[in-house]
Each structure stands twice: as structure tokens, then as C-alpha cells.
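Standup notes
- HV: blocked on the assembly model, inputs below
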Amino acid sequence: MAVDRKDNIIVAAEKTFASFGYKASTMDLIARTANVGKGTIYTFFQNKEELFYEIMNKFIQRLKKVAMNGIDPEEPFFVNLHRVLYKVLELRKEHQLTIKLTQEIRDIGTRQAQQALENVEDAILGFLEVYIRDAVEKKEIKACSPKVTAFVLLKLYVALVFDWEEHHEPLTSDEIADLFDLYLMRGLRK
Amino acid sequence: MAVDRKDNIIVAAEKTFASFGYKASTMDLIARTANVGKGTIYTFFQNKEELFYEIMNKFIQRLKKVAMNGIDPEEPFFVNLHRVLYKVLELRKEHQLTIKLTQEIRDIGTRQAQQALENVEDAILGFLEVYIRDAVEKKEIKACSPKVTAFVLLKLYVALVFDWEEHHEPLTSDEIADLFDLYLMRGLRK
């Protein structure tokens, strides 16, 4: 019963944050959306920040699960990596709360929204780093810094999945896989 | 004499835009900084937008010159490309007006500032595209789309030169050259 009520509050809060952003979502507004008294929310969460943190944390756990499920130990490093990055970025791209937070950062620079998206990025980088370190140790790829490589791979993917389509036709998953293979696995050298 | 007066206005206007951003820089303010009457400015430029466009255009010409001078036909594609990208991004990084416009876009989203920085990026991409097409034709690098490759190279460089140092020790030019060689020229494949 308590779990149901807590979940109900979390769902309502996520909806509120996704519609109005972090700053404009008051506890009153969340309580009204959840159809509970404000006091009920405070029995589960000390303040708005804590509630927001729980919601973002659930999203990060979801991303990690998607990433883990994207790895098939029978398949080569590159195929897994492409699938993981593509799935994770697709999920992030369609996630209403993340979209709203990105707008909020651009429009009014809310610190908590900024921090939340950095935490999401750090989680993705952390996952990639572990996976790359493993591939280097198993000699599946050349020796490289797992930290820098994770950073480069994520930046390149974000560029191809998000930035490219600001001014061009979107690339398909297969096209991105081919580009990724050419640029980062085979290299441009003749 | 007219050229001197025009140059004087351009220098003063660039200083004003770099201090106050595009939006807050009125023609009055520019006239005071240039120590001329507002009427004098209008003999050279129809409006603030035209004056701004001239200044940004001069900057783009300067970037192109730096890029051209960075290419030594005796040296391999990769060495030239690294030098050009590094020099161009260093120049952009230290350019006070560009820094101010970036802040202005973040803070109040001025359309003209946004457009100006997109023009700078397009100029760099255009230059890279020509250089990459040439390298593909001469079979110095593998067959690839010059447009997508220019985009990927610039995004990767911006990530390594600008974004990396937001949370880590800055990378030196040599380190970036090594990373670039590993990731994009040799590739990660064993």
C-alpha cells in the first residue's frame, strides 16, 4: 500500500517535472497532480530535490539495464558497442523529462537540471569505460585509455545521433554503425 | 582616410560587441567607443546587423587564412589536418567576441549571435570538406563522405579541445594528435 502510494507520487512528480521543468514544479503542484495531500509526499521525501534525485536515479538505472541487455558476449566488441550506444541515446532522446531539462538548462540554467544531466552522462561514461577496459584486457581492441575512449565514443555518437540531424537528414542506425566502423574501428588510413 | 575611419569603427564595434554582446550593443554605444558621431557610422554601414556581419566575416577570413597556412603539401594528410584543426580551434577559443556570443546564446539566445557562430562552423566545415575530398581523390585516405567526415572530425576536435577540459586536465596538442591518430587514422581494431 505504502509502495503504491510512493510509486503514484513518483509517477506524478515525473509527469510534473517533464511538463514544467524542475524549477517551476512546486511540491503543491506535484501533490495536486498525484491527487494526495502535500503532507503525504513529505512522509516519503524530505524535499523536492530528494524526489527529483530519486526519479533521475530510476532513469539512470533504466539506462544501465538497457546497456547491460545490449551486450551479447558472443558478439564482437564493435557490434555490442554500437547497439548499446544507439539504444541508450535513443532512450535519452525520447525521454520527456530529459528533453524538458535540456530546455530548462538552455532557457534559465537551473543548476539541479544541469547536475542531473551530468549524472546521466557520467553513468553512461562509467558503463562504457568498464566495457572498453574489458575489451582492452581481452585484446579485442588496441591499447587505449578507457576513460578517454569512452568520452570520444559518446561524443561521436551524440554528434551523429543528435547534432547531425539539426541540419541534415537523420542517419539510420545502420548508417551510423558503418560510419562508426570506418572512423573508429578501421580508421581512415589507407 | 575613409578606410582608416571605417577600420576605426570596425575595431570599436568589435570591442563593444565583445564586451556587451550583440543585443546590448547599440549604435550609440559603438559611436561613443569609436569616438565618432552616429551619422559617421551610417555612412559606412546601413545598420548594426550589417556592421556585425562585416566583423564576423573578417573573423571567418582570418580563420580560413590560418587554415590555409596550416597546410604543408609536403606533409601527410593527418599531420596537416591536426595542425589546421588545432590552430583554428585555439583561435576560436581565445577570440573574445566568440566567447561573448557563446555566453549570449546561452543566456538570452540572441538569434544573430547564433547565426554568426553557425556561419563560423560552416566555414570551418567547408574548408575541411574540400581538404578531405582532395585526400580521398588522391587516395591518401580511405573512401568516405567528405561532408560526414568533416563533421565527425570537427565534433571530435571540439570535444577534445573544449569539452574534455570541463572536467579533466586539458590535453596537450601532442596528446590530441596521438588520440586522433589512434581513433581516426589507425582505428581501434586489433
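- HV (later): unblocked. The interface with chain A takes residues 78, 106-107, 109, 139-142, 144, 148-149, 151-152, 155-156, 159-160, 163-164, 179, 182-190 of chain B (CB under 8 Å). The domain at 53-186 of chain B is CATH 1.10.357.10 (Tetracycline Repressor; domain 2).
- Next: hand off to the docking folks.
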